[in-house]
Design a protein that fits this description.
alpha/beta, 10 helices, globular, binds adenosine-2'-5'-diphosphate, 8-stranded parallel beta sheet, 39% helix
Length: 276
Amino acid sequence: MDVLKETYTLSNGVKIPKIGFGTWQIENGEDAYNSVSLALKNGYRHIDTAEGYQNEESVGRAIRDSKIPREEIFVTSKLESNIKNYEDAKKAFEETLKNLGFEYLDLFLIHAPWPWNEMGKDCSAGNVEAFRAMEELYEEGKIRAIGVSNFSPSDLENIIKNNKIVPHVNQIGYFIGLDQKETIDYCREHNIFVEAYSPLGIGYLLSNSDIQKVAEKYDRSAAQICIKYLLQKGVAPLPKSVHESRIIENAQMDFVIKEEEMNFLDKIKGDPRRWE
Ligand code: A2P
């Protein structure tokens, strides 16, 4: 079966397509519009954006122009990392809907436990407030599932203790080399679904010689090995590309990585991302 038609089921019963199209670092305008259009044309039905990516307008327009019924596409956006109170969270959500040109969202996430420019800051109370606003929007039917992103077990614990709803999703950077074991174990235990952003290590994993060896053995590309590895871990990878051939390649998943190679890939350690 075409993997783009396959879904996972969140703890509230909502179905989420297994592979999502990531749009981080795709510029608003032609780039975002064209790449989302190409993803939809090639069968993707799960699109991931964020207020912070500043491309919601073009992403929404591409989705609307595709003429695919809105309910057939799973769309995620995220609350900006610096918004840590109830009122502003509500306002930001309305802004996101307006940017996208939608009546509702499938998934809305707190983008990070702290503002990006104050990483590590304790925003526990603010996260509880922001999540409370999201719970209300969820209960009003304006969002089908709510969650968080970049949350550690202690960040999640804070929400579980102080809010009503256990987040349905935690979206984290997860790829070969960065095993995220503690967070993934915690999420499994609490039935929080994991989405994996940067499945290719923002591209840097593709030159890893061990991954290339496995790719050769399976007669696949390194990108396909990286994405399939995550699917076999039971998470939803969110690969990004602005090239149609790669968008297609990243969803050709009609093969299985055997246990022996999964174990070999598990042994690769280190985060290859370079933040220059
Ligand atoms: P481009 O958008 O120019 O195709 P990640 O999903 O981990 O963030 O990785 C995204 C990066 O990997 C982008 O730079 C993207 O470049 C590149 N990329 C995506 N898919 C492929 C592919 N199949 N082969 C090679 N590079 C890819």
